[in-house]
Write a structure and sequence with these properties.
By secondary structure, this protein is α/β, with parallel strands linked by helices. The protein has helices at residues 26-39, 58-72, 87-99, 117-129, 141-144, 150-156, 173-182, 196-201, 216-227, 231-245, 253-263, 280-295, 300-304, and strands spanning 9-12, 44-46, 78-82, 104-107, 135-139, 162-167, 187-190, 206-209. It has one domain (9-304): TIM Barrel, CATH 3.20.20. It contains 13 helices and eight strands. Belongs to the DapA family.
Length: 307
């Protein structure tokens, strides 16, 4: 039975842990899930950019999904990311995820081909019409070179299962444009870690996070404080967090955030080729950011006092 997706709160874009011999590390994956559930996250997204979607085999995505569903025990929704080049592949992946028990989907525009507005809307509509699952559109023109505009969302609003948007345009005014155009028709989830507090204060319903994979308690504290109107307290943690959050907006965000999750004991730095683990000066620089933050990390007692 599917869990209802509220599209509110913190949804980690999960890392995919690998072993030294390039197999899925499901025990470590489950350890991370438990740490995030203990912190109070509201849902999970499997196989996104941080999850190394481009290198995962379809059966591996299903293995991750089934592992997450077993850990979550229907307490929070588990979503699968759809990032494919061909429409029929996207439909097949959506249907496979639905059959395997996914509670919802995050849907990217066509990969590699820079589709125009008509093609992009047709792509989204076709996938949505072939599944009953609720869908969040990932709007990230910065990385994927396709902007889903207000006019395009006006067309997508006709499909009831297209329900939410991961707002990653890096243009905070787009949150207000979407609210002015659609009110509450679409739930909005901030998708850029370095703009997360701003997005929440401007009216986003939730936060699809990256550094939450390494720092779930801190992420949850910012979200809860922002929603409670305790902006000064949220800002104090956010300012501490910012050097770490900036790891999320680098081309090597996967390697950087995996190194952070390893440092906090809930991940490893193994990645899948063509990515390679960090070495030399670059690794030292990232570790310096992580270790400097860890030395000044808010105490668990302080974070718990916000609940």
């Amino acid at each position: 039975m599917n869990v209802s997706v509220a599209w509110e709160g913190v949804y980690p874009a999960l890392l995919t842990p690998f072993t030294a011999d390039d197999q899925l590390d499901l025990p470590l994956f489950e350890k991370n899930l438990h740490a995030q559930l203990d912190a109070g996250v509201h849902g999970f997204i499997i196989g996104g950019s941080l999850g190394e979607a481009s290198t995962l085999l379809n059966h591996e995505k299903i293995d991750l999904l089934q592992s997450a569903l077993a850990v979550c025990e229907s307490n929070v929704p588990v979503l699968v990311n759809i990032a494919e080049q061909a429409t029929k592949q996207a439909v097949a992946c959506a249907q496979e995820a639905e059959a395997a028990g996914a509670d919802g989907l995050m849907l990217l525009p066509p990969m590699r081909y820079p589709a125009d507005a008509r093609e992009t809307v047709t792509f989204f509509k076709t996938v949505a019409q072939e599944t009953a699952l609720p869908i969040m559109i990932y709007n990230n023109p910065y990385d994927y070179k396709i902007m889903t505009t207000v006019a395009m969302f006006d067309e997508l609003a006709k499909l009831p299962n297209i329900q939410a948007v991961k707002e990653s345009t890096r243009d905070l005014t787009n949150i207000t444009r979407m609210r002015n155009a659609f009110g509450d028709r679409f739930k909005l989830m901030g998708g850029v870690d370095t703009l997360a507090l701003e997005a929440l204060l401007l009216g986003c319903d939730g936060w699809v996070g990256g550094l939450v994979d390494a720092f779930p308690q801190e992420t949850m504290a910012i979200y809860e404080l922002a929603k409670a109107g305790q902006v000064a307290d949220a800002l104090e943690i956010y300012r501490w967090f910012m050097p770490l959050l900036e790891l999320d907006i680098h081309p090597k965000l996967v390697q950087y955030i995996k190194l952070a999750a390893q440092a906090t004991g809930i991940g490893s730095e193994y990645v899948r080729a063509p990515r390679l683990p960090l070495i030399g000066t670059e690794r030292e620089q990232v570790l310096n950011v992580i270790n400097t933050a860890l030395a000044k990390r808010p105490t668990t007692e302080k974070l718990m006092s916000y609940k």
